[in-house]
């Protein structure tokens, strides 16, 4: 990619095998979010190839039924509660909102006391928990997460790590960016470090 005269993400080559996770790290501006946006089709790279489940990322429902992401912040519906948002997403994904999955996530993420609130009344960390509940509540094959630890306290970060491990155990794949080594260690995924020149160096086995 090039933004003006500034090259970003040059010579980057990575694969996330189905059922595994990979975490992108690197300093601010290294290109982590840009890479996640390329993978989710939100931005078209100037050159190179991106394939997700063998397909080019696009805007079709077929693509988005397999990919859940926090790269784009959602717009919350005025008047709908926290619980109604998650139910709506789960229902629209063809899953049963009453099968206990939402209660499981609300218990894990501490959202039960906020279930009847509207998102605009939540703190930024509470809204981040809601966002994670939304993406984890619907069936998907790939989670693309941009700094899932953002604004979360330490206890909830470990809970999120546990939910991500559960997602992997169920056969899902995860590509995420993070600045939190403890979260990455708790998920147990390999790390791909992007430097500001975007030449990747790896630690762990992607
Ligand atoms: N839409 C855009 N227009 C111009 N420049 C952009 C745009 N998006 C990203 N950039 C630039 O690309 C570079 C990489 O940005 P990116 O957000 O991918 O970094 P990052 O590694 O996610 O950083 P952070 O750790 O701060 O989240 C930065 O220099 C940024 O200014």
UniProtKB/TrEMBL annotation:
InterPro entries: AAA+_ATPase, ABC_transporter-like_ATP-bd, ABC_transporter-like_CS, P-loop_NTPase
Domain spans labelled ABC transporter: 1-206
Pfam families attached to this UniProt entry: ABC_tran
GO molecular function, one term: ATP hydrolysis activity
Segments forming a coiled coil: none
Origin superkingdom: Bacteria
Keyword Transport belongs to the record: yes
Keywords of this entry: ATP-binding, Nucleotide-binding, Transport
Keyword Nucleotide-binding (UniProt): yes
SUPFAM superfamilies linked: P-loop containing nucleoside triphosphate hydrolases (SSF52540)
PROSITE patterns per UniProt: ABC_TRANSPORTER_1, ABC_TRANSPORTER_2
UniProt-listed PANTHER family: ABC TRANSPORTER, ATP-BINDING PROTEIN
Family note: Belongs to the ABC transporter superfamily.
Name this protein carries in UniProt: ABC transporter
Classification of source organism: Bacteria, Bacillati, Actinomycetota, Actinomycetes, Micromonosporales
């Amino acid at each position: 990619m090039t933004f003006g005269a500034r090259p970003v993400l040059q010579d980057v080559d990575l694969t996330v095998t189905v059922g595994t996770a990979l975490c992108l790290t690197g300093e601010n501006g290294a290109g982590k979010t840009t890479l996640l946006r390329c993978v989710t089709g939100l931005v078209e790279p100037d050159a190179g190839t991106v394939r997700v489940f063998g397909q080019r990322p696009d805007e079709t429902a077929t693509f988005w039924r397999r990919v859940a992401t926090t790269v784009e912040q959602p717009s919350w519906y005025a008047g709908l509660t926290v619980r109604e948002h998650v139910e709506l997403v789960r229902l629209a994904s063809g899953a049963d909102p009453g099968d206990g999955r939402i209660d499981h996530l609300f218990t894990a993420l501490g959202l039960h006391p906020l279930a009847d609130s509207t998102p605009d009344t939540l703190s930024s960390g509470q809204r981040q928990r809601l966002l994670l509940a939304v993406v984890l509540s619907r069936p998907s094959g790939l989670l693309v997460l941009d700094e899932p630890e953002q604004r979360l306290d330490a206890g909830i970060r470990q809970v999120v790590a546990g939910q991500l491990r559960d997602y992997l155990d169920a056969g899902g794949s995860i590509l995420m960016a993070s600045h939190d080594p403890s979260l990455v260690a708790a998920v147990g995924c390999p790390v791909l470090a992007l430097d500001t020149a975007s030449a990747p160096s790896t630690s762990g086995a992607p």
